[in-house]
Amino acid sequence: MKQKIIVLDRDGVINEDSDAFIKSPQEWLPVPGSLQAIARLKQAGWTVAVATNQSGIPRGYYSHAILSAMHQKLQRMLGELGCEGVDWISFSPYLSVHNSPCRKPGVGMLQAIENRFGLSLQGAPLVGDTLGDMNAALNRGMQPYLVRTGKGERTLATQDPVLQAIPVYDNLAAVVEEILK
Questions:
Q1: What is the pLDDT of residues 70-118, one digit of tens each?
Q2: Strand partners, 49
Q3: What DSSP assignment string belongs to the chain?
Q4: Does the pLDDT at position 1 exceed 60?
Q5: 11 catalytically annotated
Q6: Which of 11, 17, 129, 133 is catalytic?
Q7: First and final CA of the chain: distance in angstroms?
Q8: How far is Cα of residue 31 from the mean position of the Cα atoms in its chain?
Q9: Mean per-residue pLDDT for 157-171?
Q10: Is the peptide bond before 144 cis (omega within 30 degrees of 0)?
Q11: How far is it between the farthest Cα atoms of the chain?
């Protein structure tokens, strides 16, 4: 049986986003319904991985330790819902100017997830709120889902042609509802 795996962007999908960056565990606040959606996926036997650009690190807004504390908060909050938490978190601590293949729309984080679980992400869902997320999914042969939360409305406003064939949902909970049908 093929392993059920989903890749989620973090800021704007799982937690609220900010143009001023999420710089501390105190600022890390879940999008309403997102943690419950992850718990539903886990209960349905899905592997949940996160792939998140974190350019705030090289900008000096927060450290690797603070990023880890934010991720520990995510896992703790999922645990409080009776969920074992996400299975893997990949992050890219690079700026666009670094041209790192790890930074979305590059596929380095997605390749790392494939290596971690020994599988192909071909056809697997990726939920994001930016063109970078959508292009990373398409570049890896995945099924992208755009959410309106975070930068989703701003992404839709670009009217980029790549968006024409991508399903759009209000939030992660709505995507999960569709996937679990």
A1: 999 999 999 999 999 999 999 999 999 999 999 999 999 999 999 999 9
A2: 7, 88
A3: ----EEEE-SBTTTB---TT---STTT--BPTTHHHHHHHHHHTT-EEEEEEE-TTTTTTSS-HHHHHHHHHHHHHHHHHTT----SEEEEE---GGGT-TTSTTSSHHHHHHHHHHTS--TT-EEEESSHHHHHHHHHTT-EEEEESTTTHHHHHHTT-GGGGGS-EESSHHHHHHHHT-
A4: no
A5: yes
A6: 11
A7: 18
A8: 12
A9: 98
A10: no
A11: 44
pLDDT, tens digit, 9 for 90 and up, residues 115-152: 999 999 999 999 999 999 999 999 999 999 999 999 99
The answer to whether 160 is a known catalytic residue is no
| Cα gap 102→25, rounded to integer Å | 24
Question: What pLDDT score does 3 carry?
Answer: 83
- Side-chain-side CA neighbours of 111 within 13 Å: the count stands at 10
- 5-16 pLDDT, tens digit per residue, is 999 999 999 999
